[in-house]
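2024-03-11 09:14:02 INFO worker-7 job=invfold-0412 stage=load source=structure_tokens
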């Protein structure tokens, strides 16, 4: 059975591929292997893709995968997988009583920490578990304030770019401590990796691309924020038609009305993964909407979507 590692290092294209999962890895690998010629079937336990995102993200990716020819089966889980020792074909049995035969199966249903065998037990920490850290990436359960952990293992924001960000903050915190200046969290010092709590940018390289930063509308309301969301079709912006024929995209902005700042943004369509950084700067910088209105996008570019969103908000 493949994981994402085999899926990104395989040297042959399977004729038939079953992907188990409905998250980012499942959607990206289904897109990639279908584009390379595989007949791809996606088994999704939930009733939608990318369930932690704004609904528009999953809807657009579902449409895009369908256009590529990916078969998506919602509300279905694999219960048994077996490979024939002679033909090497793989049989996948599902909980609705159906059977699929394929050449490879890709499991994209999450990860577990590989912290066994690192010697954590020698410092009083359980091996095989996640490591809880503070905003300087210091492991809070380790006595002596000497152990730091960055990346997926601390479970804060399991993304490559966030691991690199945490590493920079962690190195700065260690340097501060070595210089006799204890790293105090809060106040957004360079050594405080707090962006992974409120401004995590995410990108899904599917067709269409999907990107987001900050909170979804639902998450913001659950956090007790008084928010208002505005939406706009990116394909209605003049620059979209110049960028690509039949451009299709969607934009959603989540605004904290109490502070008058952007707390979340979701984009779909070509260049969504490039456009999201503008929203990231707005969220991290807590730039007031009245100031954002003066950030004039060049015409005719896709970036004009930001002006349209602000106009939709009423500025």
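2024-03-11 09:14:09 INFO worker-7 stage=emit residues=315
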């Amino acid at each position: 059975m493949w994981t994402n590692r085999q899926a990104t290092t395989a040297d042959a294209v399977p004729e038939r591929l079953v992907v188990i999962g409905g998250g980012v890895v499942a959607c990206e690998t289904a897109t990639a292997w279908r584009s390379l010629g595989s007949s791809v079937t996606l088994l999704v336990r939930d009733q939608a893709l990318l369930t932690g995102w704004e609904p528009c993200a999953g809807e657009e990716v579902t449409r895009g995968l369908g256009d590529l020819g990916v078969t998506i089966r919602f509300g279905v889980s694999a219960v048994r997988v077996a490979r024939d020792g002679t033909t090497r074909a793989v049989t996948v049995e599902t909980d609705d009583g159906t059977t699929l035969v394929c050449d490879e199966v890709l499991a994209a249903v999450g990860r577990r920490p590989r912290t066994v065998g690192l010697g954590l037990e020698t410092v009083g920490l359980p091996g095989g578990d996640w490591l809880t850290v503070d905003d300087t990436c210091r492991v809070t359960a380790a006595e002596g304030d000497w152990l730091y952990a960055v990346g997926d293992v601390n479970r804060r924001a399991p993304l490559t770019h966030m691991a690199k960000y945490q590493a920079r903050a962690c190195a700065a915190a260690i340097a501060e401590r070595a210089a006799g200046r204890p790293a105090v969290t809060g106040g957004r010092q360079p050594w405080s990796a707090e962006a992974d709590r409120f401004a995590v940018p995410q990108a899904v390289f599917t067709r269409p691309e999907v990107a987001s930063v900050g909170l979804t509308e639902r998450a913001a309301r659950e956090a007790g924020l008084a928010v208002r969301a505005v939406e706009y079709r990116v394909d209605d912006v003049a620059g979209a038609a110049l960028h690509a024929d039949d451009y299709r995209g969607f934009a959603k902005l989540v605004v904290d009305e109490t502070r008058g700042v952007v707390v979340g943004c979701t984009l779909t369509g070509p260049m969504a993964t490039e456009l999201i950084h503008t929203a990231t700067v707005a969220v991290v910088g807590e730039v007031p909407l009245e100031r954002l209105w003066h950030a004039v996008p060049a015409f005719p570019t896709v970036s004009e979507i930001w002006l349209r969103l602000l106009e939709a908000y009423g500025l």
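2024-03-11 09:14:09 INFO worker-7 stage=report msg="DSSP finds ten helices and twelve strands in the chain."
2024-03-11 09:14:10 INFO worker-7 job finished
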